[in-house]
Amino acid sequence: MARQNDLLMDISILYRSTQKYYDKKLANLSLTYAQLPILIAIYEEEGISMQKIALDGGYDKGTITKNVQKLVNLGYVIVQSSIKDKRAKELYTTDKTKEVMNQIYSIRRNWWKHIIQSIPSKKIEEFSYLYEDMAENAKVFADKDDEQVQFFDHQKVDLSFYTDKVSTVLSTAGCNFRCKYCTKRNLIFLNENRMELNLEDIKNFLEKRKDIYDAVCLKEPEPLMHEELAPFLRYVKKLGYLVKIQTNGSYPDRLKSWIDQKLIDFVSLDIKNAPSYYGETIGIPNFNTDIITKSIEILKKGQIDYDITITLIKELHDTNRLKEMAGWLKGVKQVTLMSNPSTMVENYHAFDQNEMNEALHIFKAFIPNIQIKGEAYVSGRET
């Protein structure tokens, strides 16, 4: 894994190690790492307000109030009314604080000296500016109410995913399943340096092509896990596009809500295996398939156009599971069987043509409208 992908873990290690060091060194003063930045801020700016400490340090009001009260109880800080405004409170350090500040500065200096000991001074100077900017950016972004949908892949034109439609295909990130054969793991376990696509660029693309393209498609990993996608879908529908969504069926309530709101026009439900083997297939032991059944029943009501897709894999789908799956899906409008060798990950293998035809016959006993899709089997397709 590339180093930039470990930033979150590195920050966590640095934070926990720093906390452990300071708590140990400050124990004889009855202080903790959490209180230390606040105490130093008061010492270096006598008369500072809690509001200013909260603003400078990115603290919430409750955290500041709690820690200041602890410092008061320990005799390190006093709270006084401002001479200028009696309603305002100012914070001052006591003689007790002033007696121990040299010790505290020494503790801080020793820690800094230890963690930079193998780093050239020029890099330390550069890093000092860098982490100051990162801290400021983090403080601003943490308070930002950012609920815009994020896309991480954009196939600008597609002629096959939505049959007989000229489409553009967008992918969100993340999935609640852990299928070992998944080909979209790069969109599930996002690298920290993987940036989302510019939403305004996507909107400009759609607006310029609204009279040329027919549809916007939302594909795997799992678009329905993103509640914040709904406003984008409303925007797309206002432009006049059809919307197709591919889903694993684990969000039936949201699926029904978006269907009822007429935010989507076509659903492609990806079924993974027979109910008895579902949990093992998706990497979630004891998974309750009732939610998948609920999604199937929503689609069977015929309120929206849909199909059921199944990717067949030798290691996962034997004859018994195919029969169980076909019986489970009885009554659905259409099922598409797929098994493309070029999309199989390591240790998993596609069905050959004979196996696909056998699967086709098993499903036909329960579902009249069944087809095979996959570049390796076009010549052997049965209708």
Gyration radius from CA atoms, angstroms: 29 Å
Number of domains: 2
What gross morphology would you assign? elongated
CATH homology superfamily of the largest domain = Aldolase class I
For the largest beta-sheet, the strand count, sense and barrel status come to:
8 strands, mixed
Total helical segments: 13
CATH architecture of the largest domain: Alpha-Beta Barrel
- How do the helices and strands follow one another from N- to C-terminus? HHHHEEHHEEHEHEHEHHEHEHE
- N-C termini distance: 46 Å
Tally of extended strands?
10
Helix content range of the residues, please?
40-55%
Structural class: alpha/beta
User: Based on the structure, what is the oligomeric state of the protein chains?
Assistant: single chain
CATH topology name of the largest domain: TIM Barrel
Strand ordering within the main sheet: 3-4-5-6-7-8-9-10
Note poorly predicted spans.
375-383
- Average residue pLDDT: 90
Task: Look at the structure and give the CATH class of the largest domain.
Answer: Alpha Beta
User: Into which percentage range does the β-strand content fall?
Assistant: 5-15%
Offer a quick outline of the entry.
This protein has 13 helices and ten strands. By secondary structure, it is of the alpha/beta class. It has two domains: 3-142, Arc Repressor Mutant, subunit A, CATH 1.10.10.10; 153-380, TIM Barrel (Alpha-Beta Barrel).
Task: Describe what this molecule looks like in 3D.
With 383 residues, the chain is of the alpha/beta class. It has 2 domains: 3-142, Winged helix-like DNA-binding domain superfamily/Winged helix DNA-binding domain (Arc Repressor Mutant, subunit A), CATH 1.10.10.10; 153-380, TIM Barrel. It is 42% helix and 14% strand. It has helices at residues 7-26, 36-44, 50-57, 61-73, 95-115, 121-142, 199-208, 229-238, 252-260, 278-282, 290-300, 319-328, 353-364, and strands spanning 77-81, 89-93, 153-158, 167-171, 215-219, 242-247, 266-271, 305-311, 335-338, 370-373. The strands form 2 sheets. An 8-stranded mixed beta sheet has the order 3-4-5-6-7-8-9-10, with helices on one face. A two-stranded antiparallel sheet has the order 1-2. Helix 9 (252-260) packs parallel to helix 11 and helix 12 (319-328) packs parallel to helix 13. The longest helix has 22 residues, at 121-142. It is elongated, with a radius of gyration of 29 Å. The protein starts with 6 loop residues before the first helix and ends in a 10-residue tail after the last strand. The model is unreliable at 375-383 (pLDDT under 50).
